[in-house]
């Protein structure tokens, strides 16, 4: 069975085709600039063949048509026809309190995803466009599945997901913590239990997804009991360009000083803050680490702040779970930045964590602590596309 995994944004479409017999990626690609001048597709097959072209894509429908061409007719083709594909799995950012797991996309589910656009205006409307374009391109008979970034976090108790604001904002507007990166936290925590050869029901795991966006989740007995991202992916700790948690009065103070609108504030705190805002160098971790090595003090400060905040979040989740058996690092930074992992673990020696420097320097999936470390720390590469494909397969079977 082959599953087509789709991650659609308002002007972009990322995809992979995965053969579920062996869970191998057959091809992957990206359509960019959908709806604007200069739309293009970049497609690569598993054997390294590349198909790249600029072609008009006024809507997601034309983007899917380009993908069909790339997969079935281009020099980098991997299948003869889309009939070879069993189902389509969509990454959906916001499932609200409605979707507690992945689901087959029925007209009712599509309607709910559309209505949840109120909570994720930058994402859910784009997902809806993509789902409708898939129906147009592949027909309504081709099963489509929605896999939500939020559903893994739906097990949080109210004491973790409620905000201490007037209750009417929860009842009237559904303002609460939803979390994000759930597919990744679910994937790496399950994998962690597998590697430890233990039943996840008996484990307390803290998963740190550190990429451009960053979040940390407390997974107790296989269920999320708390997570750092909140109402939106802006909450938590500092990321490439996002603030993480901020004193609300700092926000109103700055807004008054500079006469800023809610849209201005959204832009500043989502796109101009975090590691970029403090360092003034870049949102890319590698650039900031390089600048700090050359003596840039603000770059060093940004790095110090981020690592300190990560350690504090981990500490708070040790408290929330009254213990921890394993900590997992994943995401572009979590998987690749050994110095960050070592420094964060350096804050946690009180837990009996001892990092093995040689193992920490290795690439790929590894346990990075010594055998006598009281808590095991792992690097586990995330694979959200595979997780989406697995859920899709399970539902259509
Ligand atoms: P992601 O959003 O998961 O793709 O992660 C992107 C982040 O990972 C960027 O800040 C990158 O600088 C960082 N990253 C990727 N590769 C490395 C690496 N080899 N060393 C340090 N950071 C890395």
Tell me about this structure:
There is one protein chain. The chain is α/β, with parallel strands linked by helices and 397 residues long. The chain folds into two domains: 147 residues, Nucleotidyltransferase, domain 5; 182 residues, ATPase, nucleotide binding domain (Nucleotidyltransferase, domain 5). 39% of the residues lie in helices and 20% in strands. The chain is built from 15 helices and 14 strands. The termini are close together. Adenosine monophosphate binds next to α10 and α12.
Q: What is the CATH domain class of the largest domain?
A: Alpha Beta
What number is the mean pLDDT? 97
* Count of helical stretches: 15
**CATH level 3 topology of the largest domain:** Nucleotidyltransferase, domain 5
How much of the polypeptide forms β-strand, as a percent range? 15-25%
Question: In total, how many beta strands?
Answer: 14
Specify the CATH homologous superfamily of the largest domain: ATPase, nucleotide binding domain
What is the count of structural domains? 2
String of helices and strands? EEEEEHEEHHEHHHEEEHHHHHEHHHEEH
Helix content percent band: 25-40%
Bound molecules: adenosine monophosphate
Strand order across the largest sheet: 5-4-3-2-1-6-8-7
Largest sheet: 8 strands, mixed
Structural classification = alpha/beta
Principal-axis shape equals globular
**CATH level-two architecture of the largest domain:** 2-Layer Sandwich
